[in-house]
Amino acid sequence: MKVRFTGTLVSALLLSLCLAALIPAALRNVLTWKQLHLEMGPSVRVDNFLIPFGFLHLGIAMVGLIVLWTGYIKRKRWAWFVMLIILLCSSFASSVLPVLLQIRAQGYQWSMLLDLLRALPSGGLGHCLAITPSCCNDAVGIDCMDALILIGLVNFLLMLVALLFPVKAFFWKPAKN
Predict the structure, then answer these.
(1) Scanning 34, 97, 116, 157, which has the fewest C-beta atoms within 10 Å of its C-beta?
(2) 75 vs 98: CA distance, rounded Å
(3) pLDDT tier at 140 (50, 70, 90 boundaries)?
(4) Where are the domains of the chain?
C-alpha cells in the first residue's frame, strides 16, 4: 500500500503532534488530584483548579485526535470547523490570550513580545503567567514566574498554519472536466 502525502495528511500529522504535546502538561495537572488546596505562600491557599483543567485539556486533545483521524482526514468540513473551534477556544485562549492580556495590563509595548521571542535562541525561555499571591492586598492575582511560555505560542502558530494549509481541500471543489 502506497501512502500519498497530501496537504490534508501533513496537516493532520502536524495537528496530531500539537495535540499530543498538550497531553503531558494535562497529565501533570491531573496528578495533583490529592491536593485539595494549593499553597501559594505562608498564608495563602487557593482551591486546586488544576485537576478539572487537566481533565478538560485531556478531553479536548482526545476529541481533537478522534476528529482528525475520522473526519478531517476524509476532508469533511465539519471536522475542519471542529479543529478551528479547538484552536480558537482552547489553544488561543490558554496560551496566547493570557500573554496578550498580561502585556496590555502591564502597559507593555508590542516590542515586549518581540523581546520574548528574541530570548529563544539564547535559552532565556522565562516569563510565564501564573496565579500567585499579590503582594499589595493579600489577594490572589496574576503575576509572572519562570516557565516555558514560548512553547504555547509556537504550538498555537504551528496549529494555525497546519489548519490553514489545506483549507482549499475543504472548501473548494476541484473542477470536473
Answers:
(1) 34
(2) 32
(3) very low
(4) 7-107+149-171
Distance, in Å, from the CA atom of 75 to the CA atom of 68, rounded to the nearest integer, reads 10
3-class DSSP state of 116:
helix
In whole angstroms, give the CA distance from residue 6 to residue 74. 11
Sign of CA dihedral 119, 125, 126, 131: positive
Q: Tell me if residue 57 falls in helix, strand or coil.
A: helix
Neighbours of 55 (CB within 10 A): 14
Q: What is the pLDDT of residues 54-99, one digit of tens each?
A: 899 899 999 999 999 999 999 999 999 999 999 999 888 888 887 7
- For residues 2, 5, 6 and 10, what is the CA-based torsion angle, rounded to 10 degrees? 140
